[in-house]
Each structure stands twice: as C-alpha cells, then as structure tokens.
C-alpha cells in the first residue's frame, strides 16, 4: 500500500507548484473598522478578480483561506451564503470575489492560514512551492500567513495592490517588512507572471530567484 494517496481521495486531481491564496475576502466586515476597510478593499478586489482570472487560465489553483467567525457550526458555504444574502457590509466585496466550483476552501480559527487548518496538507498534495498571497488584512492575517509560509520555505509573492488593511500606512509598512524580512515579491498584480512562477526553483534549492527590481508599493 502506498505511503501517500496521490489524489487526496479524489479532491485534488491536479498538481501545481504555484497556488493563489485569498485570505479572509469572504467577510461580513461587521466590526468597528469594517467601513474603513471596505473603502480600501473594494478597489483592491477589482484587481484581485483580474488576478484570479489569469490564475485560473494558467491552471493555478485558487484557495480561499477564510476566518470561520468563531462559529464552528458553520462551513464555508454557510459563510458565503451569509455574506452574499444577508444585509452585511462585506457583501459587495464577496460579490466581486465569489468562488467558482473548482476553487478550494480552508477555514482557519486564528490569524494564520496554517494554524490548526488543512492548508499544509492541501499544498503538499498540490506540490506547491510558490504562494501568491492576497486579501485582508495586510497587517494582520496576510502577515501571519506569510510568516508561517516563509518558515515552511515557500516562495512568496504578495502583490501590493491585492492586499488591503484599514490603515493604508500600516498596510504599506507591513508590505515593506514582508519584502525585507521574508524576501516577498511585492510587485503589482499586473506584473505577476504565473508561467514564470511555475518555473521558479523552490526556496533553498537550485538557482536563486532574481531580485525583483524595484521593490515598491503599487498604488
């Protein structure tokens, strides 16, 4: 008997060394800073929707890594239904970034997408080496997920114009820190080349990745 079931019980039939992660974009935003966050998230969502389309066309899996709002009785479909059908602040964001049938979903209990979730297992079966991190919020959940991904030796691409926070200054500061400390590529989403990412060597092996020039915040 093989040590590893290669198809994850039929749910991951394909392999991809690149994965696009959408962090906490299906969110009702019903909290104190939600209105301010929505103001910055909506223009971000339009750019992210375009990035998602290009990822799917390139055969790169889209993975929704989402907060469960502390309700362990809910699954992702219930959360999506709540945000799309109820009169909540985050509805227009979810309408722009609603998932498709072939996308993947991981619910998380804390800030990091890796903490006590199945994300490690999914990425292992996909054989992902490079993660494109996007979503909300740059200074909290994207940051924590990026940290844990870096510790697992993933290559990190974090398009600066596809990450939003309530405070743009904190968002920009955090992006620069992720670029400096985690070697994250923060080039604008329009410059993300999925085919080139597919051929990038794994971090810590092979030829080093070329340093993106310049490292700047997209506006």
- What's the architecture, going by CATH? 3-Layer(aba) Sandwich
Q: What name is given to the CATH topology? A: Rossmann fold
User: Strand-residue fraction?
Assistant: 5-15%
- Provide the CATH top-level class: Alpha Beta
Order of helices and strands: EHEHHEHEHEEHH
As residue ranges, the low-confidence spans are 9-13, 206-212
Major β-sheet annotation: 6 strands, parallel
How would you name the oligomeric state of the polypeptide chains in this document? single chain
- Rg: 17 Å
Q: Helix count?
A: 7
- Number of folding domains? 1
Name of the CATH homologous superfamily? Isochorismatase-like
Q: How far from one another are the termini?
A: 53 Å
pLDDT averaged residue by residue: 89
Approximate shape = globular
Structure class: alpha/beta
**Total strand segments:** 6
Helix content: 25-40%
Q: How is this structure best described in words?
A:
The chain has helices spanning 34-57, 76-85, 91-96, 119-126, 141-151, 168-182, 194-198, and strands at residues 18-23, 62-67, 104-108, 130-136, 155-157, 163-164. It is of the alpha/beta class and 219 residues long. The model is unreliable at 9-13 and 206-212 (pLDDT under 50). β4 (130-136), α5 (141-151) and β5 (155-157) form a beta-alpha-beta unit. Helix content is 36%, strand content 13%. The chain has one domain (8-198): Rossmann fold (3-Layer(aba) Sandwich). The chain contains 7 helices and 6 strands. α5 runs parallel beside α6 (168-182). The termini are far apart. Strands 1, 2, 3, 4, 5 and 6 form a 6-stranded parallel beta sheet that branches. It is globular and about 45 Å long.
């Amino acid at each position: 008997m093989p040590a590893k079931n290669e198809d994850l019980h039929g749910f991951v039939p394909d392999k991809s060394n690149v994965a696009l992660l959408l962090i906490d974009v299906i969110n009702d935003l019903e909290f104190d800073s939600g209105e301010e966050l929505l103001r910055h998230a909506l223009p971000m969502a339009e750019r992210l929707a375009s990035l998602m389309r290009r990822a799917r066309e390139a055969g790169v899996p889209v993975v929704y890594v989402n907060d469960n709002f502390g309700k362990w009785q809910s699954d992702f479909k219930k959360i999506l239904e709540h945000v799309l059908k109820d009169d909540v602040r985050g509805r227009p964001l979810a309408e722009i970034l609603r998932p498709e049938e072939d996308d993947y979903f991981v619910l998380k209990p804390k800030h990091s997408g890796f903490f006590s979730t199945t994300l490690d297992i999914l990425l292992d079966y996909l054989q992902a080496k490079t993660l494109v991190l996007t979503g909300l919020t740059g200074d909290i959940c994207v940051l924590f997920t990026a940290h844990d991904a870096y510790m697992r030796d993933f290559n990190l691409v974090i398009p600066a114009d596809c990450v939003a926070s309530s405070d743009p200054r904190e968002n920009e500061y955090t992006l620069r820190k992720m670029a400096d400390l985690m070697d994250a590529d923060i080039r604008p989403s329009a410059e993300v080349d999925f085919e080139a990412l597919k051929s990038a060597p794994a971090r810590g092996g092979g030829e080093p990745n070329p340093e993106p020039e310049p490292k700047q915040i997209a506006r």
